[in-house]
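PROTEIN SPECIFICATION:
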Amino acid sequence: MTDSVSRTALVTGASRGIGRATARALAHAGARVIVHYGNSTKDADSLVAEIREAGGQADAVGADLLAPDGAHKLAAQVGKLVGGKLDILVANAGIAVPASIEAQTVRRLRPECSL
């Protein structure tokens, strides 16, 4: 990652797994990181604390991206934090439903979906 200093990055699903590692790497490269989480407030807060303790800048923002207005709420919260200037977006958020790939459907992942 080059030229991340003075950049602001939003990493969705950053409280755990690949998103957490990505947020950590961006912070290490000098970016201010917005740590998005869906349900893992504790995990997101611990990552923010870790980044800040290492001298970086980070904030946590919670939003349920399964909700129809979730992305809009996330955008509004991030906009307030960064003053409308976002340089990097890592769209990492996802869900996992234990089942074989053949058993996966849109309806199974999002029961409210009308497909």
